[in-house]
Design brief:
This protein is mainly α. It has 3 domains: about 45 residues, no CATH class; about 90 residues, Tyrosine recombinase, N-terminal domain (DNA polymerase, domain 1); about 180 residues, Intergrase catalytic core (hpI Integrase, Chain A), CATH 1.10.443.10. Helix content is about 45%, strand content about 10%. The protein has 14 helices and 8 strands. The strands form 3 sheets. A 3-stranded antiparallel sheet has the order 1-2-3. α3 packs across α5 and α4 runs antiparallel to α5. The chain is elongated. This is Site-specific integrase. Belongs to the 'phage' integrase family. InterPro entries: CB (IPR044068), DNA_brk_join_enz (IPR011010), Integrase-like_cat_sf (IPR013762), Integrase_catalytic (IPR002104), Integrase_recombinase_N (IPR010998), Integrase_SAM-like_N (IPR004107), Tyrosine_recombinase_XerCD (IPR050090). Keywords: DNA integration, DNA recombination, DNA-binding.
């Protein structure tokens, strides 16, 4: 039998023997993933049948074996999901919030479709069909499913369980055209009036307002900060005594499942850490809030519960929705104030200034997701056309 050097996944010259019962034994050395050459054999009634059986055994021996797990191409997909989530947690490169989001999206969007499949059964066509069907229901859900499916299968490729990631070849998802929504100045004042009416206690019965909601809205309008960033503002982040009052955005509020809500010492991105000069209406709201703030320490949160603990973003959203529903105003979310500010700055100054205020690294993000398009073409075109095509000419 040949002793030539084999590459991983190949076999040497096939030899044949007769078994005691007269059947033919075909055998050859096969170099496995670990680099060791092992003798593999199979039996058949004839040389041809024994050789076919031997080659079938070679085909079954997987070239792609994981480096540090028990996963194989025949492992159920849920086993990969469990291993992938554990690997993410060990790496520590994503936040707890992101990890929980990945787990939720995998459990609710992907696993119901893939849980009965083995890894080798998940190919490009299956993934492509799955995403297209999901995109018919929701582009955002399809996008979220694509992210977690690509990451999980990518781990299988890195650990050499699969030869390639089928998600690398699926069709590109097409985002449906959307127009960012923003409030007009009149609508902003309508929201202010509804909140003031509720905070004055003139609304229907319910928990007594503590006066924070109106101030939160004024800070969002004056800084363009995300709701979590606004709720994370501390005394030491505020300067309302200088000629140019300002607020420094240095953190955000996070709520991890099963854990108390806390302040995170950095905002969403590196560029989100910024100092923003605030307008008069925001400075006034902050001064009023500071007067009522019991905790005088530098790290005291500007907006907090009666016990001084952070407010949750979900509770503020819920309270805002409740107050505006009472006033017959619908569709207003905290993030809409961010788009409203971006639209105003873009119209009055420039896209670049709006992107800088929002803490975006790329103005294209601001244009696509935050600026409400002005459908009114520059009126100077009418005068130009009058000069060119006037009947008097």
């Amino acid at each position: 039998m040949s002793r030539q050097r084999l590459t991983i996944g190949t076999f040497g010259e096939i030899g044949y023997l007769k078994s005691p019962n007269g059947r033919t034994i075909a055998r050859a050395r096969y170099r496995d993933w670990d680099g060791r050459s092992r003798l593999v054999q199979a039996t058949g009634d004839t040389r041809k049948s024994a050789e076919r059986a031997l080659k079938a055994k070679f085909a079954e021996r997987s070239l792609f074996q994981p480096a540090a797990s028990d996963l194989t191409p025949d492992s159920p997909f849920p086993d990969l999901v469990t291993y992938w989530l554990e690997d993410l947690e060990l790496e520590g490169r994503v936040s707890k919030r992101t990890l929980q989001l990945y787990e939720r999206n995998m459990q609710t969007l992907v696993l119901p479709v893939f849980e009965s499949l083995t890894l080798r059964e998940i190919g490009v066509a299956r993934c492509d069909h799955f995403l297209k069907q999901l995109a018919k229901q929701s582009y955002n859900r399809a996008k979220q499913a694509r992210v977690v499916l690509r990451l999980a299968l990518g781990l299988a490729v890195r650990h050499e369980v699969l030869p390639r990631n089928p998600m690398d070849h699926v069709s590109r998802l097409r985002r449906p055209p959307t127009i960012p929504s923003a409030l007009t100045p009149a609508e902003v004042n309508g929201v202010r009036a509804a909140i003031a009416y509720w905070e004055a206690g003139r609304s229907i019965s319910g928990p007594k307002p503590d006066g924070q909601l109106g101030a939160i809205v004024e800070v969002m309008l004056g800084t363009s900060a995300r709701i979590g960033e606004v709720l994370a503002i501390r005394r030491c982040d505020i300067d309302v005594t200088s000629a140019t009052p300002s607020i420094r955005i240095t953190g955000t509020i996070v709520s991890h499942r099963g854990e108390p809500t806390t302040r995170q010492d950095h905002p969403k991105t590196a560029k989100s850490r910024r100092t923003v000069a605030i307008p008069t209406f925001t400075a006034e709201a902050v001064r009023r809030r500071l007067v009522h703030l019991a905790d005088a320490t530098p790290d005291a949160l500007l907006f907090c519960s009666r016990e001084g603990t952070p407010l949750t973003t979900n509770n503020v959203r819920r309270q805002l929705r409740h107050v505006l529903d009472l006033a017959g105003i619908s569709g207003v979310t905290p993030h809409m104030f961010r788009r409203t500010v971006a639209t105003a700055i873009s119209q009055e100054a420039s896209i670049d200034l709006a992107a800088e205020l929002l803490g975006h690294t790329d103005p294209a993000i601001t244009i696509q997701h935050y600026i409400r398009r002005n459908e009114m073409v520059d009126p100077s075109t009418a005068a130009l056309l009058d000069r060119v095509f006037s009947k008097e000419r």
